[in-house]
Design brief:
Low-confidence stretches: none
Radius of gyration: 13 Å
Strand content: over 45%
Shape: globular
Mean pLDDT: 94
Helix content: under 10%
Order of helices and strands: EEEEEEEEEEE
Oligomer: single chain
Number of helices: 0
Number of strands: 11
Largest sheet: 7 strands, mixed
Length: 115
């Protein structure tokens, strides 16, 4: 079974930075895109950023200019560089891989931003 392994969880002060990583445990083919979502307590899961097989990126308005998604789709890896973090960025960040056949999800990594 393919697993998405996330790393980079942490507790930082507002204004700080964190870098999240995600890697598939085995090769996945026909990938359309990889993405990061986040879920805060009491809120719906939110799409944070995506990168497709052509390298095109998209961001939620709330993180534009602060977060950068990057990665090597062919190597099944994706990163999320988060700068100028705000308390409202707190949540569980989940890695998502969208292949032609199905979606895969990581278990999530906790990011906590203190004010």
């Amino acid at each position: 079974q393919v697993q998405l392994v996330e790393s980079g969880r942490g507790l930082v002060q507002a204004g700080g930075s964190l870098r999240l990583s995600c890697e598939a445990s085995e090769s996945v083919f026909s990938i359309n895109a990889m993405a990061w979502y986040r879920q805060a307590p009491g809120r719906q899961r939110e799409l944070v950023a995506t990168i497709n097989s052509g390298g095109t990126t998209n961001y939620a308005d709330s993180v534009k200019g602060r977060f950068t998604i990057s990665g090597d789709i062919a190597e099944n890896t994706v990163y999320l560089q988060m700068n100028s973090l705000k308390p409202e960025d707190t949540g569980v960040y989940l890695c998502n891989l969208q292949s032609f056949w199905r979606d895969y999800w990581g278990q999530g990594t906790q990011v906590t931003v203190s004010s």
